[in-house]
Amino acid sequence: MLATALRSNGFERSTGFAVLALALTIALFAASELLLPVERRNTKTRANPLAFIGSAAYAAAGAIALGLAIAFALRETWLVVGFAVSAAGVAFLSALRPIPLLRSMSAALATAALARLIWNPIVSDVGSWPILNWLIPAYALPALCFAIGALALRERQDRPRLVHEALAAFFFAAFVLLEVRQAFAGPDLVPTADLVRLHYLGPRNRLFEEVFCHVMALGLLGAGFVLLARRLGGRVFGISADLAAIALILVGIGGLGAVLNPVFDGTSVLGWPVFNRLLWYVVVGGLLGLLGYWLGRDGRSRLGDTLNACAAVLVSLGAILIVRHAFSGPVLAPMDGRTAGFAEVVTVTLLLLALTAAARIWRELSPGRVTGFALRALAMIAIGWTVIALGIGRNPLFDHSGVEGPVIFNRILWGYGAAVTGFAGAAWWLREITPAISVAFRRTALAGSALCAFLLLRHGFHGPLLASDVPVTLAEAGFYAAFGFIAAIIVMITGSVRLPRRSVPVGPDWAAIISCGLFALLPGLIANPLVTQQPLAGPLLLDNAAIGYLLPALLTFAAARWAKEYLTGAGARRIFGITAIIGGLAHLLIEVRRGFVGRDLLIDAGSASELYAYSAALLLYGVALLALGFRLQSKDLRLASLGVVTIAICKAFLIDMSGLEGLLRALSFIGLGASLVAIGLAYQKLLLREASRPGKAH
Questions:
Q1: What is the pLDDT of residue 613?
Q2: If we measure between CA atoms, which residue out of 181, 299, 281 comes closest to residue 231?
Q3: CA-based, 20 to 30 A from 62: which of 119, 434, 549, 600?
Q4: Rounded to two decimals, what is the model's pTM?
Q5: Is the bond leading into 539 cis (omega within 30 degrees of zero)?
Q6: What residues form DSSP beta bridges with 496?
Q7: Would you call 305 helix, strand, or coil by DSSP?
Q8: Which residues lie below 8 Å from residue 694, measured CB to CB, with a gap of 6+?
Q9: CA 50/CA 47 separation, integer angstroms
Q10: Contacts of 56 (CB under 8 A, 6+ apart)
Q11: Rounded to an integer, what distance in angstroms lies between the CA atom of residue 350 and that of residue 418?
């Protein structure tokens, strides 16, 4: 009959041959039923593998004829359905009559169906209606037939059963994926160039939507295969689930995360903020996450881990792209720390922290390697994004964008402050479940706080652009030096500096040397008004020189006093003390200079009265140090007083009086001598009073 059909009409659709095949089917089944009683009477033992071979052969031939009838009734391409029906019928017969030949024959017919499909797949003229179309008989019906055949062959785990299970999984997966394709493409499922062209030029990105539907279909297919593998114990369904997981990674992460990502492919995203095609990322990712959580309840599976990974990537990527779209508009590309605005960078930072916090909840609900890795990956991305985009790319000190507003309440405060608050809150939220991430977030918050304070200082001292004619102003340098002395006191209290992986012990002498060196470098050299040639700012005695020199000197004096009380060595105390004396003296001399020449210290060469004023200031400063030394019972301060007074005397003799003659010189000598006698008498009186007290000065 096959030869005749091929000879006469090329195996095209033929009602006559269909009727003939159906009649042959009835005849063969009737012959099988008539022969079966005869075989039963003549068979002495049923253990013989060839028992009932005649009736089984007629029945198998009838099943094959039924498949041919289906193929003749439709068309040549539907021979796949005929082979599938024949394979299911022969498998069912093998269950009724346990003849090994029937099982092998069923597997051969099933393999023929697959070969026929590969040779001429059914992908055109499948109908215009979604779901209710010719894909049901072409793919769903063979899948059902192979599933029936697998159930009929379930007694043994042999090759025929594996063939039926594999083809059932293959045809069902093809049916589901092609139904998705038909819903977007129509009757002809073969992709064309218009599919790509419309993706880039059309108003609606149907390819984008179709791929998302395919991702969801792959997730559901994989979940179904996992359930079948758990309940039926078939190896084929487990392998099918793994193949679905691989396809899900390629299509979901590779396709949606890279190839069709609007940041990379340059396509526009039309529609309202949030409610546009980017919402597919969040919706589909969320559904995949729920599916992975559901699979993970009954035990760990590779597909569940894959679903969780895809969910983490799609939801995170979708949320970030939605934020990008809200700030940039339809065109999202490119996106980096230079093209994204400051507000967008801050918003993305907070979003990444929120995603990290959500990942922590997700890990508690579904513990596993993937959820733990997702938590760590999001935390690393949040830190990396903050460093690159907020610390460098959109740092107003580097991009010269300008910061408008008051000195403190501007975008530096709310931008960096919000990020710091987010990292601090996330560090507290993660402190128990992931201590390492909590520590990293805490350090990031500390670094962000320092950067925020630094930028606010730059804005306050340099204006909106955070830069001016000098690299560091005098008052700014004073603040930096003051912070350095505060840090030195903290280091001396703790005795070490904490690095990322260990604590480095730091001696008090080194803390004193480094902090005092910073004071000498910044206010003493770089920001020195005599070097920068910048005028002083502010009223006399309360100008920026007070912040630049007097404030650090007072903190240095406090550090020296703390070192005297709590440290046994005298090195750090004396380093701090000398620095404090020099800082106070520098402020005093600068203020004297300003009293004579005004804010610009280099505007005039000076006068004789100014020179006398310097000597008087030095003498008074020495007296003040002497009084403070007796007050605090400090021998070092008294020695410092002696040094300052000596400098004042030398200056008076060598410089101030060098230009005087006659009576003026004599009067100057008499006044200087009287001053020294008064200082000596006061020193003697104070020394006797101190000797009468218990204890000894240091």
A1: 83
A2: 299
A3: 119
A4: 0.78
A5: no
A6: 505
A7: helix
A8: none
A9: 9
A10: 32, 93, 97, 99, 101, 102
A11: 8
List, for residues 538-566, the tens digit of each pLDDT value. Answer: 898 889 999 999 999 999 999 998 888 88
What is the C-alpha separation between 330 and 328, in angstroms, rounded?
A: 7
Q: 3-class SS at 401? A: coil
Contact yes or no for 641/626 (Cβ under 8 A)? yes
Closest CA to 177 of 248, 82, 258, 116: 248
What is residue 698's predicted lDDT score, i.e. its pLDDT?
46
Residues in contact with 232: Cβ distance below 8 Å, sequence separation at least 6, in sequence order: 154
Which token pair is 147?
Answer: 């599933």
Tokens of 492: 């001396």
What's 271's DSSP letter?
B
pLDDT greater than 90 at residue 674: no
Question: Which pair of tokens denotes residue 372?
Answer: 């733990």
Report the DSSP beta bridge partners of residue 558.
Answer: none
Mean pLDDT, residues 481-495 taken together: 90
User: What are the DSSP calls for 536-594, one per residue?
Assistant: P-SSTTSSHHIIIIIHHHHHHHHHHHHHHHH-S-SHHHHHHHHHHHHHHHHHHHHHHHH
Closest to 107 (Cα-Cα) out of 85, 129, 131, 91: 91
* Bridge partners for 504 per DSSP: 497
- pLDDT (tens digit, 9 = 90+) per residue, 201-260? 766 778 888 999 999 999 999 999 998 888 877 688 889 999 999 999 999 999 888 888
Residue type, 553: A
pLDDT tier at 416 (50, 70, 90 boundaries)?
A: very high
Residues contacting 466, CB < 8 A, separation 6+:
396, 397, 403, 455, 458, 459
Distances in Å between the Cα of 497 and the Cα atoms of 304, 566, 607 are 45, 19, 50
Mean pLDDT of all residues in the chain?
A: 83
Which comes out higher in pLDDT, residue 575 or 504?
575
The model's confidence at residue 168, banded by pLDDT at 50, 70 and 90, is very high
DSSP 40-104: HHH-S-TTSTTTTHHHHHHHHHHHHHHHHHHHHHS-GGGHHHHHHHHHHHHHHHHHHS--HHHHH
Tokens of 253: 């992460």
If one compares 43 and 558, the residue with the highest pLDDT of the two is 558
- Residue 633: partners with Cβ closer than 8 Å, 6 or more residues away: 690, 695, 696, 697, 698
Q: Strand, helix or coil at 650?
A: helix
Q: CA of 178: how far to CAs of 170, 243, 513, in Å?
A: 12, 17, 76
First to last CA, the chain: 123
User: What is the number of other CB atoms lying within 10 angstroms of the CB of residue 503?
Assistant: 11
- Higher-scoring residue by pLDDT: 680, 440: 440
Question: How far is residue 320's CA from residue 354's CA, in Å, rounded to a whole number?
Answer: 11
Coil, strand or helix: which one is 400? coil
pLDDT of residue 492: 87
The average pLDDT across 419-439 equals 93
